[in-house]
Amino acid sequence: MSDDESAVQDAGFDEWIDAAESGEAYALECPNGHGSLPPRRVCPDCGATDLEEVSLPDTGEIETFTVTHVPTPAFEEDAPYATAIARFGPVRLTGQVVGTDLETVENGLEVEVEITVSETTGERVLGFSPA
Amino acid sequence: MRDVRVAGAGLTAFGHVPERTSRDLFAEASITAFEDSGVSREDVEALLYGNFMGELSEHQGHHGPLMAEAAGVQAPATRYESACASSGTAVRDAVMRIRNGEDDVVLVGGAERMTNLGTAGATEALAIAADDLWEVRAGMTFPGAYALMAQAYFDEYGGEHEDLAHIAVKNHENALSNEKAQYQSAIEIDDVLEAPPVSEPLGLYDSCPISDGAAAVVLVSDDYADENDLDAPVRISGTGQGGDRMALHDREFLARSPAARDAGEEAYADAGIDASDVDVAEVHDCFTIAEVLAIEALDLESVGEGISAARDGRTTADGDTPVNLSGGLKAKGHPVGATGVSQIAELADLLSGEHPNSEFVADATTGVAHNAGGTVASATVHVLEVMD
């Protein structure tokens, strides 16, 4: 991939990462209260097209997690690392748990969204840190 | 409605042959399938072909015509891609084409070349079955996704790694007599528990290998089978497909696979059977936990009970409903695009008495094949029945 290509952003997604970096992570919500993540024009649950940005709660809760030892090449130098699914209001997010020892990650752990950086590629990564 | 019969099947050995192209692998499988079927290549009206990662592993798209050529078939050909359920979806469309009278003879197959990518490269390639933006970029791998499902299962219903280890031990045991299997070696519970971790709780022996291989089946209408006096005693009597949200975190239940449940219910209804009629199953055990989710989705076990099925001997070769007598993906191997068709091939052999493990299901009449894509955002289920 050339430098020019790698500079191209993913509209909707990169804005979300920008917002999350500023502590303003959001979900999309339809009139029926279904949450989803961008880029999105149609509610995947009910087909509604008037989606609204709603702020995510400051903290979420880890519902399940795993410690990955065999990563993809993009995370080669990051392994082992914990990947968790956490509930934030109307949506769940998948993220890498940072800012704590792997042994302390547990279900129910209260976390906030923290945009971190891959040690391997320097790319921004959706992460969770203990609240 | 016209009936669909399995006229012949062919598999390459599954394993580590990084230098072999997918066109060569598929050619071999197709030759065996044609020889087994007694069907002439010139009667084939369509090739439906499953492949997942050809762009990444071989820098090759547009597989359909390439594979028709490799098989020596002059017929329109289409590639099916639904991650690890790629060739399951191809089987389903072939069944519908034959039933509705469009075709009498369809070659269905799949192949995957994976080991040339190495472990890291194959891990990266498999990960594209997940949501790139919201899962893969956060570092989720494919084993990682199934590890999340395993953890969620343990939390919801109980169970532990040792229960999963019994599944790996069972499937290795089943593969001992399968000359096509990648692993024909017995393992012990401790081998599984002490293996290097991949994504906790799953370790190396909870995971299917990275495999090269191909599979092909020749499916025909009952009219064609009768007219040509074919020996084709196994029919595909039910087909179903289910879908779900792409990302695991968007599923209501992290430890269930509703897409497979929907596919199973549709296939059972289509065949006019229910789960209690199933004598033998080939299910998509890409990881040990996946077999648990599969047998629960197929209603062979109640939700929350599947975890103990192998340990307590209900799904072992001498159990009530043997699961993965071929060795499953775990021991037979998982050349992704070939897997769905290979399950049909193994099941047809098991039911017709031609499989080395047929002795365990000598009275079986009904089998089910379950093929899953991604974290089961795609699933197909087929019911096979042997005729009297």
Strand content of chain B: 15-25%
**Fraction of residues in helix of chain B:** 25-40%
What is the number of helical segments of chain B per DSSP (H or I, 4+ residues)?
13
From the coordinates shown, what is the CATH architecture of chain B? 3-Layer(aba) Sandwich
Beta content of chain A comes to 35-45%
* Mean pLDDT rating of chain B: 97
Global Rg of chain B: 19 Å
Q: What order do the helices and strands of chain B follow?
A: EHEHHEHEHHHHEEEHEHEHHHEE
> What is the number of E strands of chain A?
8
- Assign the CATH topology of the largest domain in chain A: OB fold (Dihydrolipoamide Acetyltransferase, E2P)
Strand order of the largest sheet of chain B: 3-2-4-7-1-8-11-10-9
Largest sheet features of chain B: 9 strands, mixed
The domain tally of chain A reads 2
What's the total count of β strands of chain B?
Answer: 11
Count of individual helical segments of chain A: 2
Pfam families (chain A): OB_ChsH2_C
Protein name (chain A): Nucleic acid-binding protein
InterPro entries (chain A): ChsH2_C, NA-bd_OB-fold, Thioester_dehydratase-like
Domain ChsH2 C-terminal OB-fold (chain A): 54-115
Task: Report what the structure shows.
The complex is a heterodimer of chains A (131) and B (388). Chain A is mainly beta and 131 residues long. Chain A has 2 domains: 9-55, no CATH class; 57-131, OB fold (Dihydrolipoamide Acetyltransferase, E2P), CATH 2.40.50. Chain A has helices at 3-7, 13-21; strands at 26-29, 35-36, 52-55, 60-68, 81-88, 91-97, 110-117, 124-130. Chain A has a 5-stranded mixed beta barrel. The N and C termini of chain A lie far apart (37 Å). Chain B is 37% helix and 18% strand. The mean pLDDT of chain B is 97. In chain B, strand 10 and strand 11 form a beta hairpin. Chain B contains 13 helices and 11 strands. Chain B has helices at 22-37, 54-58, 63-71, 86-99, 118-127, 142-157, 161-175, 189-194, 222-227, 258-271, 288-297, 328-332, 336-352, and strands at residues 4-11, 46-50, 77-80, 105-112, 197-199, 202-203, 213-221, 234-243, 280-282, 366-373, 378-386. Chain B: Keywords: Isoprene biosynthesis. Chain B: One of its GO terms (molecular function) is acyltransferase activity, transferring groups other than amino-acyl groups. Chain B: This is 3-ketoacyl-CoA thiolase.
